[in-house]
Amino acid sequence: MDKREIIEKTEQYVRMLLENDASGHDWWHIERVRRISVTLAKKEHADELIVEMAALLHDVADEKIAGSEEKGLSVVAEWLEQMPLSNHDKQHIIEIISSVSFKGGNGKKPHTIEGMIVQDADRLDAIGAIGIARTFMYAGSRGHLMYDPSLPYRENMTKEEYRQGRSTAINHFYEKLLKLKELMNTESAKQIAIKRHEFMERFLQQFYKEWDEQYEDVNS
Ligand code: ADP
Ligand code: NI
Predict the structure, then answer these.
(1) Among the residues of 19-150, which ranges form H helices?
(2) Which among 97, 176, 180 is the best mutation to test ligand 1's pocket, defined by most ligand atoms within 8 Å of the CB?
(3) More confident: 21 or 59
């Protein structure tokens, strides 16, 4: 099995696992994260095979999909067991996957450039127009409101509060999305994040403007 086959087989496996996900982790999310990751890997001279494999597998271990993070990571380890990669590379891929997630600000910072890249790519897909769309889909899938002016957003929260507590799509901007620009690891990702961040701010301005307009004379 050469590098290309390892990637192709892993792609098929992940497609099969995430085909029917409607909580923002569908196959196309993985494909976008993979594409940005590979682009960043080239710019940053990182190990492209490690980056692409970790990007493909990064959500297989998500606790929302696997049940728990430990279970998810062992599913990834079992998959990698069959691949002709060195133990060092397998460990590296698993390490990256365990550090990618945001977890309400309680996530880990990756130790290697490959990990930083995959984390940046996953976070870039959470902001901008696509990030906004994913946020509303996620809120819908959890039965949350899009906005509730009487529900304040949360400043600091534990991983459990972040996952389980009551929120709205709009609150999620303040609880996560608007923080991501400053958390980018690589300069290339930061540049992309700045533009996507500006778009989210314009979106929020327009959203509040329309929300308030409902009480005004439409002809004025
Ligand atoms: P990640 O892949 O970064 O771990 P998550 O699994 O937390 O992201 O979430 C998947 C998508 O749903 C992301 O776009 C994220 O911003 C969004 N999301 C996560 N939690 C919420 C929430 N409480 N309300 C709205 N959107 C959310
Ligand atoms: Ni993801």
Answers:
(1) 27-44, 48-57, 63-66, 69-81, 87-100, 113-124, 128-141
(2) 176
(3) 59
